[in-house]
Amino acid sequence: MRRVVSGSFALPTSDAMIGIGLALACALVPLVTPSAYALSFLFTVFMYGALAGSWNIIGGYAGYLSFGHAAFFGLGAYTTALLLFYFGWSPFLTMPLAGAVAALFAALVGYPCLRLRGPYFSLVTLILGLAMYALVLNLPFTQGSTGLFLPFLKVDVYTSHVIFYEVMLALLVVVTAILRQITRTKMGVGLAAIREDEDAAGTLGVDATRLKLQAFMLSAFLTGLVGGVYSYYKSYLDPSFVFATSISITIVLMALFGGRLTWYGPLVGAMTLSVVNEVLTTQAPPQTARIVFGALLIGVIMFLPDGLMSIVQRHFRHS
Questions:
Q1: What is the Cα–Cα distance from 235 to 60, expressed in whole angstroms?
Q2: Burial of 130 (0-12, 13-18, 19+ CB in 10 A)
Q3: Judging by beta carbons within 10 Å of its beta carbon (0-12, 13-18, 19+), is residue 120 exposed, middle or buried?
Q4: Using one digit for the tens of pLDDT, what is the confidence trace for 21-68?
């Protein structure tokens, strides 16, 4: 899409206008007073859309398939939860700290991890999530396996659902806007070059080490923000869930399924698979969802490496 320029102002392109329209429509949904179940489900869709989009910065644009984003999610969740539990600080205000802690951890582990490639990088990031789970489980101030019980918002239950719905929608909009903007900057070009051929990118002047670390930290920061809100939403925090490997795998699957080479692919994947997961959870035996998601991950990697949106794009190019 071309950017239309009028005077000194750049007018939004059509895809941006569509996105703004959809975001405004979603923001107005609570006005029709949907059920608490509907708001809760949409909150989950927005959360996974934001998580898949955050992952896509390093996993899609740079091509480094991380299976350890649960570490950043859990760190963000515990940062805001501990600040609320011990000091009474609202997670809505400490979200930036949640993102900063996750980004700092990414900076510490990123340099050695990002020297690895392919399955070696994926394996190490998977271990990071497991290591953070073990650490938080055994720290005394995190309450260990007992978990943290957090106070509820001082409003009625339905209003609480509406507030969290709007906050998570705002985070999704921010993540999507950042993803879209990256594709239009030198950072996006550099990450694409690294994804296609990192050695060749280096010969063309791309500082691969710096760019990968920036992408890793930004991805972790956004993931930490989402985790920070989620901890308050659940009101109870248990390391066995927020650091669960299943979260990392679900994020990866959603981004790959939708299309990791586009800024809107992870959102499409999150929406589609959230619906599939909801149907399976309510209509099928408990283990069925895990089996289906595992089969989908294998199928996407083998037969649909560029995601669902690649098929749509090819269709429109040939029509």
A1: 32
A2: middle
A3: exposed
A4: 999 999 999 999 999 999 999 999 999 999 999 999 999 999 999 999
The answer to whether residues 206 and 194 touch, using CB atoms and an 8 Å cutoff, is yes
- DSSP 3-state assignment of 197? coil
Contacts of 151 (CB under 8 A, 6+ apart): 84, 235
Domain boundaries defined on the chain: 1-28, 33-244
Residue 240, number of CB atoms within 10 A of its CB:
11
- Planar angle of CA 104, 109, 111, nearest 5 degrees: 105
Residues 284-299: tens digit of each pLDDT: 776 777 788 778 778 8
Q: State what percent of residues in the chain have pLDDT above 90.
A: 66
Among 227, 187, 230, 193, CA closest to 211: 187
**For residues 190 and 6, what is the distance between their CA atoms, to the nearest angstrom?**
29
Place of tokens 């429109």: 316
